[in-house]
Write a structure and sequence with these properties.
Radius of gyration of chain B: 25 Å
Strand content of chain B: 15-25%
Radius of gyration of chain A: 29 Å
Largest sheet of chain B: 8 strands, mixed
Strand order of the largest sheet of chain B: 15-14-13-16-17-18-24-21
Oligomer: heterodimer
Largest sheet of chain A: 11 strands, mixed
Number of strands of chain B: 24
Distance between the termini of chain A: 13 Å
Shape of chain B: globular
Distance between the termini of chain B: 67 Å
CATH architecture of the largest domain in chain A: 3-Layer(bba) Sandwich
């Protein structure tokens, strides 16, 4: 989480195409920065079979073709014809789609027709300035923004005005807290968003929801299927949902909640895409804002390479202290047994509620360096 | 970048040729060894030293793998894992530049080796002409190379041409293994597949405008035309046919090509990997390759049939060495951290929950697994959380083994002389050749199995998932070092073997389980044991029960096992088996629960049974089992 950061986003086409903006240009959320045409779907026709050509003679297919490779055809157009027995036997091959003849195989006797290309556009996603152009591929957009990384999300890129739908990070976002005026907005919940609220958000046309947690069961009901491998972001016709803490009822971190509150009424970009594997992608909330200071960007990698240190603030990310925040008191070197009898490296932590706890080092994440 | 590619190929080639690698090291000067494995979830450092005349394991360190933002550098995780070793031993191994080489006193190491499964693994699509012949051979070869097989395309796979093209286009694999046709066989169908691929124009998973590698290992007569169809669009590599004749499978050339391209195209894309390559002069080996090497070693050393399993965070790798034949399968997305929710999806929540001896509602189980998925490095602090993980592990192992058996089967398409009785048994051809009665050892590795707080937990997970029959030894990797020893063996085989025997391979014990119809209660077999202390014991294997007989590691007992008339323990139905039983840290497990193992449908009875079985082998703390029992009342 960063209250202010200079952020760069690379916006790239899936295949080479045309870049539509120049370096230095100002862009908005929906500015199209690059576009291309992705090759259309293909349709194959067993032409030699339709024409009654013997398997050993498929190389003769070319002589019956009325259209050549590269020719445009329309749906129902005759592309091949075979007349035999002095006109007594006639066979025709019609194109099942509109497109271009891509291949006539004298090996398999098949004709391949590719449908017209499909246009693909890439939008800026965040407002800002173009700081780099990647020739034929895309651009790099730079902006000053508040940035919050979620832990898991669904749904793709969107943007909308932030509304705090709950009063505190402990609250749950329920269906009665939403109404038609929320159409196009980004709603911030607290500890959990209820399944009914998710359904209502889709009906109303809410663009995004940010919540501490969600029940896995509600997510499955919303999607209509079970997520197996955590690769998301491609879901369609749903609201983009970002959870910041985990599954179940999870109080949103106070700092995250306060930062979002300070952004209420502002326009935010959201992306629920998550991929928890190598090349990890986590969901994000970006609230572009005017630059007010030098920002608080810092190199987390340098701190991580030093490892954990007493005095650092951590959040516990597993039972039995899930969600608790505290300060590291000590980091004993020796392995210690925890209740499960696992011999692990632990840390002693002073929790915010006054308790002292022993937690496996693997079960905390550093939140302050 | 180009230079890196060349060095990758050179390294891969050396890795394939063990003797070349060994030649470049003076083994006499190697006294200190550091090995790491960059797993998908955790990076593990293992520290070995020559103590007197023998190489021994000294200490281990672990830290989260750091491929995730904001770190995006695999070497940070390696550093943190090695730093733990430094703290535990007082031996300095790290400098600002990386690993200190060679050793001098308490500083540096003489050898640094590593394996890696970071980078998302190798995701491949394979093709062949006939699904059950060349396509299946290609699948086995790709899996044997440690790949995840995303799809198998064949002429007879039941999909229409446009569906195949659509599938190929949307897969975005790292690589395609293209087989088809025996040498001198069909060319037309092979070229048909080439045209499919050409039309689909699949793009590589990584990068824009990057040529997708294709390994062609099909009919040699089609090579020229294949080159014409695919050569300009893809990075085409042609190797010897995987199935030169129907009666022979020749996977090695394809596997080697896959490994070369794996090094070049996949691992080098894992963040920080290029830096890691500079730290070690020994080629980095994929984790499943390292594991597989040690399971093979185990089978070869003992001259027996072995099933091995590496239960990882992202994948489950199953290995079988059966009558000398080695098969490896990598079940993508069956794992205990990143992939834990895919186990949920594949097995179903009820199959996971059937292994829980306590009340926990479905919502809570689901949320717990999801939280593990999104934060894969967490470890169970509470006993209930551990039991839930073990429930998932049983299902991941079961599914992984089912996948393995579907590929561990004889070559199809071979004409054989048949008798009339063979015709009645023809359906058996579809099944695996693995007969659990003939498996001598089942061994496990991977974080969850190696780090199980009690070895009896590993024993029971292996028994429940693999369901051994007859007399089967159980073993496990002590602290997860088989991949490390696998890569070490390529440069210092004596050290790797010494450490494997003394510090890695933990003999858990032996499972004795009768096979056959289990109708009726009571005794299934009488077991008479002549114990090493000179005494003897007579026990019964009882229907529905588990029993543990202590017999320590390195101890042996002479056993006479007399099964009921319709049951088999290895000598045939009703025949007595005389054999030597090896003990272990757990002992001898007498398993009368039947094969297949079917848990009671009734919830209370099932939980009672689970508690009874857990108690019988001392799998979990008594206080926890008492709590579960009390809740049932």
């Amino acid at each position: 989480m960063k209250s202010e950061i200079v952020l760069q986003k690379t916006r790239r086409l899936p295949i080479p195409g045309e870049v539509l903006v120049a370096k230095g240009a100002k862009v908005d959320f929906d500015t199209v920065v690059a576009r291309t045409r992705v090759p259309g779907d293909v349709e194959t026709i067993r032409a030699s079979q339709i024409l009654g050509i013997e398997t050993d003679d498929v190389e003769e297919l070319g002589q019956y073709m009325l259209k050549k490779v590269g020719d445009q055809v329309i749906k129902g157009e005759i592309i091949a014809r075979r007349i035999s027995f002095f006109g007594l036997s006639k066979a025709f091959v019609e194109s099942p789609v509109e497109g271009t003849i891509e291949h006539v195989s004298d090996i398999t006797g098949q004709v391949t027709i590719r449908e017209d290309p499909v246009p693909v556009e890439v939008k800026a996603y965040i407002p800002g300035r173009i700081v780099d152009v990647i020739r034929n591929e895309g651009v790099v957009v730079e902006t000053t923004a508040s940035f919050i990384q979620g832990i898991f999300g669904i749904g793709g890129e969107t943007h909308g005005q932030i509304r705090m739908a709950v009063k505190s990070p402990e609250d749950s976002l329920t269906a009665n807290m939403l109404d038609s005026s929320d159409k196009g907005k980004i709603l911030v919940g607290g500890a959990m968003v209820a399944g009914e609220a998710l359904k209502k958000a889709v009906e109303i046309g809410v663009r995004g929801i940010v919540s501490g947690g969600v029940e896995d069961k509600d997510l499955r009901d919303l999607l209509g299927y079970e997520i197996g491998v955590a690769i998301t972001g491609h879901e369609e016709s749903i609201v983009t949902l970002i959870i910041t803490e985990g599954f179940g009822k999870m109080r949103m971190s106070g700092k995250t909640f306060e930062l979002l509150k300070s952004c209420e009424g502002m326009e935010a970009a959201l992306n629920g895409a998550t991929q928890i594997r190598a090349g990890v992608i986590r969901p994000e909330i970006i609230v572009p804002r005017d630059r007010t200071s030098a920002g608080e960007s810092r190199d987390d990698r340098a701190a991580f390479s030093k490892g954990m240190q007493p005095g650092m603030m951590v959040r516990v990310i597993a039972e039995p202290f899930f969600g608790a925040i505290g300060t590291i008191l000590s980091l004993p070197v020796e392995l210690q047994d925890v209740e499960s009898e696992s011999a692990v490296r632990i840390l002693e932590v002073q929790l915010e509620d006054g308790r002292k706890a022993v937690v496996p080092r693997a079960n905390v994440e550093i939140i302050e360096l | 970048m180009h230079g890196n590619h060349i060095s990758c190929f050179a390294k891969s080639a050396r890795w394939a040729n063990t003797s070349d690698s060994q030649a470049s090291f003076d083994l006499k000067k190697i006294n200190v060894i550091l090995a790491t494995d960059c797993g998908s979830t955790t990076s593990k450092a293992r520290f070995f030293k020559k103590l007197g005349n023998e190489y021994r394991f000294v200490a281990s360190g672990e830290a989260p793998t750091t491929v995730e933002a904001p770190y995006e550098d695999v070497t940070l995780g390696v550093r943190n894992a090695v730093r733990e070793v430094e703290e535990l031993t007082g031996h300095t191994l790290l400098s600002d530049d990386g690993i200190i080489l060679p050793s001098k006193g308490n500083v540096g190491t003489d050898l640094y080796v590593t394996t890696s499964s970071a980078g998302g693994g190798l995701q491949m699509m394979v093709t062949g002409v006939i699904k059950t012949m060349t396509a299946e051979s290609a699948e086995r070869a790709a899996l044997g190379a440690g790949a995840i097989v995303m799809d198998v395309i064949s002429v007879d796979d039941g999909r229409r041409t446009f569906q195949k093209i659509d599938r190929i286009r949307h897969l975005r694999p790292d690589m395609i293994l293209f087989s088809g046709g025996t040498d001198g066989g069909t060319v037309r169908h092979v070229l048909g597949i080439a045209e499919l691929i050409s039309t689909a124009e699949p793009k590589a998973r990584l990068g824009v405008g990057y040529e997708l590698p294709i390994v062609y290992a099909g009919n040699k007569d089609a090579r020229q035309q294949i080159n014409k169809i695919l050569g300009k669009k893809f990075a085409l590599k042609v190797v010897d046919n995987i199935r030169p004749v129907l009666s022979q499978e020749n996977p090695e050339p394809a596997r080697e090509a896959v490994h070369e391209l794996f090094m070049e195209h996949v691992m080098s894309h894992a963040p920080g990997y290029n830096k890691l390559m500079k730290w070690t002069s020994v080629p980095i080996m994929p984790t499943p390759a390292g594991e597989g090497k040690m399971f093979r070693t185990l089978a070869e050393m003992r001259g027996v049939n072995v099933i091995g399993v590496g239960l990882g965070g992202a994948t489950t790798n199953v290995y079988s060495v059966y009558d000398g034949k080695f098969v490896r399968t990598v079940s993508a997305n069956l794992g205990m951290s990143y992939s834990i929710c895919n186990v949920l999806k594949e097995a179903g929540i009820q199959n996971i929950m059937r292994w829980l001896p306590f009340e926990m509602n479905e919502v809570a189980v689901r949320n717990r697994l999801r939280n593990k998925m999104i934060r894969p490095t967490i470890i169970p602090q509470l006993i209930d959380a551990l039991v839930v993980e073990h429930a998932v592990a049983r299902e991941a192992l079961r599914l992984g083994f089912a996948h393995h058996k579907s590929l561990a089967r004889g070559l199809r398409g071979i004409q054989r002389q048949r008798t009339v009785s063979d015709l009645f048994e023809q359906s058996l051809e579809e099944e695996t050749y693995i007969d659990m009665m003939r498996i001598n050892i089942i061994a496990g590795t991977g974080g969850l199995l190696s780090h199980a707080p009690r070895r009896s937990q590993t024993a029971l997970m292996l028994i429940d998932a693999f369901q051994p029959e007859g007399v089967t030894k159980l073993a496990q990797d002590s602290v997860f070092m088989m991949p490390h020893l696998g890569v070490l063996s390529t440069v210092h085989a004596p050290a790797a073997l010494e450490i494997f025997e003394k510090d890695c391979l933990v003999r858990i014990g032996t499972c004795i389980a009768p096979r056959g119809p289990m109708e009726g209660a009571g005794s299934l077999a009488a077991v008479h044991l002549n114990m090493p202390n000179g005494g003897s014991r007579s026990e019964e294997i009882t229907q529905g029960e588990l029993e543990l007989i202590p017999l320590g590691e390195g101890e042996f007992a002479e056993a006479e096992i007399a099964p009921r008339s319709n049951l088999d323990v290895g000598a045939g139905p009703g025949h007595e088996l005389k054999t030597k039983i090896e003990g272990g840290v757990v002992g001898i497990v007498l398993d009368g629960r039947g094969r297949p193992l079917i848990l009671p449908d009734d919830l209370t009875r099932r939980r009672k049974d689970l508690i009874k079985w857990f108690r019988a082998v001392d799998a979990y703390p008594q206080r926890a089992l008492e709590r579960y029992e009390k809740a049932l009342k």
